[in-house]
Amino acid sequence: MAMSIEELAHTADVRIRVKAPDLSELFVEAARGMMQVMYGGCEEGTITEELALEAGDHEELLHDFLSELLYLCDVRDVVFCSFLVRVENTRLSAILKGVPFDRKQHQGTEIKGVSYYGLQIVKEEESYATDILFDV
Amino acid sequence: MNGGIKKIGPFEWEVPVGYTENMRVPGRFFLSDELARELEEGAIRQLANVATMPGILKCALAMPDIHWGYGFPIGGVAAFDRSNGVISPGGVGFDINCGVRLVKTPLSPEDLKNKRELIEHLYDSVPTGVGAKRKRFRFSPRDLEMAMAEGASWAVRNGYGVQEDIEHCEQKGQMKEADPSAVSAKARERGVPQGGTLGSGNHFLELQEVREIYDETAAATFGVKVGQVCVMIHCGSRGLGHQVCTDYLKTLESAMKKYQITLPDRQLACAPVSSPEGKAYFGAMAAAANYAWANRQLIMNTTRKVFEDLYGLSAKEMPLLYDVAHNVAKMETHTIEGQRVPVCIHRKGATRAFGPGSEDIPHAYASIGQPVLIPGSMGSPSFLLCGTREAMERSFGSTCHGAGRVESRSQAKKELSGKKVKEDLEKRGILVLAPSYSSIAEEAPSAYKSSQEVVRVVHEVGLSRMVARLEPLGVIKG
């Protein structure tokens, strides 16, 4: 099945639903969804960051991964465009590529945090899916 | 209303124990019939979830701007016993000490002949929007440490304000329990370049005119009169506060296992107030709250400089009326069934509304109660109210914090053109400057509940009393 990012209704904040054929791709879609909200997305970049994370379960791992992206974007002034993610059990390694933040080009909604509310990774027949709520 | 929710007064509703499993106390919220039509079931469920938390006292409360958030509903208030209750970042939110301040000026709208120039100067001087950082100001590591420890006092001591500003902030702009050592290196790193920036979303700096007075005595005490120009500043603790919340969600989630606490929403991660984890979160949260007070003080100082350049006003001619926090946890003492009980109160999208004679109110306001500042949405009125004794009895000295959305940001962007919203507001004499048209569309007046109706409910219930209505003249948005 195809990967997808869908914005769901939420009055106060921004809630997205992501789907992907496997866990690693689900994390990629979630990261792309977050960048879409914050900056309207971007093209391939040359700035590279590597990440290695470990958590208690997949939801916590996804929460930590997205929170780490948020932190990196904020302090490095970078917008990430492509993601190579590998999730094994509750460990993650990722290579992120991005471009320098450009106020004119990257317009979106500032995300304050990644909420745990409703964050539950569901394995369907041929795919993984989860909702993610961002405080904006 | 379903699930056994009962209307128990003209503006009061009860969510009975049993609405969801494991509720320890009932939920209670204040709404008019008109606002009740827009109430989301998700918000009631979140209120019921709060009622399941250990050590909760009396009831889980929500103000009339209740809406669906994460963890606590927005507009949520809950007090926990300090000896056996919990503290939770889910009851404060990511934007710790998001709040509002109101600055008075001696000007009238007729004095603002060059209003566009004023708004443009403000927009150029106060960084707004995603990625906003100040080019000319960065906290040094020592200043950041001191700002986290001292809040507004740090700013005034360093020349960003006058002594009277401190007296006119809730808790004098400083939570003394702050423990900067509990704030992570990541949070500090985010805090360094963002001091004095507004941020994005619903944050704003607005030029307003006092258009109507409801209570002459209170208005005279607060020093406002019809036709007076004021400036309202709405923002919080920026990336530093957001990171503190993120960090401690993780810490407290592990602590829940240790203390064998099970809750229906992971975002309600919590620990006993008296535990090392609970104390660490409270110390870090208080440090972030102080950063937010320093931040609003820096923005106000920049605003005063702009007014000085254009109108020759001094800081003393632009006194701070008051500054309130609306996302915070605090240690307070409240009367419950005739006993004075030390509590850990959480206000998430709710404002403290201490009544006459309460502690921690500026001396000049003691007979009236503390000022309560309720920002409208862009283009709609804001309100000045005062705290009441009734609020002390019924809502742990709390009231609403704003209008509350009725339409999601994506819906607003789909339905409205930011350009059109801006033009419509300009036709009404309200100038808007923002980084993008989409950020204007997202915050369009039609995406919000009527702030007037929310304020009417708290006034009718007695949780605070209406003093004045302020209408927007111009706004800079994040």
Structure description:
The complex is a heterodimer of chains A (136) and B (478). Chain A has one domain: Archease domain (Archease, Possible Chaperone, Chain: A, domain 1), CATH 3.55.10. Chain A contains two helices and eight strands. In chain A, strands 1, 2, 6, 7 and 8 form a five-stranded antiparallel beta sheet that branches. In chain A, α1 packs parallel to α2. In chain B, strands 7, 8, 9, 11, 15, 16, 18 and 19 form an eight-stranded mixed beta sheet that branches. A seven-stranded mixed beta sheet of chain B has the order 1-2-3-4-5-13-12, sandwiched between helices. Chain B has a two-stranded antiparallel sheet with strand order 6-10. Chain B has one domain: tRNA-splicing ligase RtcB (Alpha-Beta Complex). Chain B has 478 residues and is of the alpha+beta class. The model of chain B has no long low-confidence stretch (mean pLDDT 94). The two termini of chain B are 36 Å apart. Classes of the chains: A alpha+beta (136), B alpha+beta (478). At the A-B interface, α2 and β6 of A face β4, α7, α9, α12 and α14 of B.
